[in-house]
Amino acid sequence: MRKLFALLFPSILLVTYALPNQRPSRDADIYEFNVTDIDGNMVNMARYRNLVCLIVNVASNCALVDVMYQQLQALYDQHAANGLRILAFPCNQFFNMEPGTDEEIKRHVTAKYNVTFDLFHKIDVNGNETIPLYQYLKEKQPGYLPNGQIEYNFVKFLVGRDGIPRERHPPTTPPVPNRESDSVTSETSIYDFNATDIDGNLVDLSKYRLIGQHNRSSLIDIILKEPGTDKEIKQHVTDKYNITFHLFHKIDVNGDRTIPLYRYLKEKLPGYQPNGAIEYNYVKFLIDRKGIPRERFPSSTPPMKMENSIQRMLSQ
After folding, report:
1. Which CDD domains does the record match to this protein (predicted)?
2. Which end of the chain has fewer CB atoms < 10 Å from its terminal CB, N or C?
C-alpha cells in the first residue's frame, strides 16, 4: 500500500503588507469599469464582453519577467482565435521593478518579447490609489493576504466570458504548465541533511530514501506560523486535527538562522522573492523519490490542488 508522508516544520515568519483604505467596488462584472491603455486611451471593459480574459500585473525588472512574458505571449498566440484576451497592467509597487514610463515599458516589452496582447497604463494594485477594476478583482478573488492584497508581480486573474473573475493564480504559477524535466542539475538531495523532529530527536533525512526505493511515497514539506513550544504545537495539532504525519522542531526558514535543509530547498526552487525567501506560511515543496525538489507551491495553494502532481510522482 502506498503512503504519503508529510514533513511539517513549524516556523516563525514575519510578513508586512499595506492595507488599502479604499473600499472594493460592488459592481457585478468587469464590464462596468473603464481603464486607460498604455497609449493613454480610455478603454471601456465592455469591449471584452463574451471573451475570456487573463488580467496580470506585470513588472519589467522582476526575476519572473522572461518566463512570464514569453509564456503569456505563447498562450495568447495559441488561444486568441478562440476568444482569449490578455490584459497586462504594469505596476511599480513591488521593489520598484517597473520604474519606466508607459512609453518606455511598451517599447521594451514589444522589442524584447514581441508582445501583441493588450498593455495598459501603469497602476497601483494595492493601497489608496488602487484602480476600481483591481478593487473589484481582489474582492471577488481575495487570495490569502488580508483585504485581498496582491502579493507580488504577475498575479493572474482568469475572468470568464460573463465578466466574472473565476480564478486567481499566484505569481509563481506559469501561464503554460511546466513539463517535468528528467535531468537533475546537482547530485545533492534532501537525503544529505539532518533535521530535528518535534520530540527533539535528530533525524537523518536519508531515512526517507527507503520509502522512495520501495515505491511508497514522495515528500511534502509544509511550514506554519507558530508561537508555542514544540510540545504545545504537537499536543494542539494532534488533538485538534488527529495528525499522524511527521512533525519537526520549530525552525527559521528565512534569515541567518535558516536551517541547511531550507537553504537547499530555496536554492533549488527559489520562487519569486529575492534569494528564494519563503513568502508566508504554508509554502509547500514537493520532493521526488530521488530526494530532488521538483515543485514549489505558494501559500494559497490548497494541498488537494497538488494532488495531480503528487499522484504523478507516486506513479514513478
Report:
1. GSH_Peroxidase
2. N
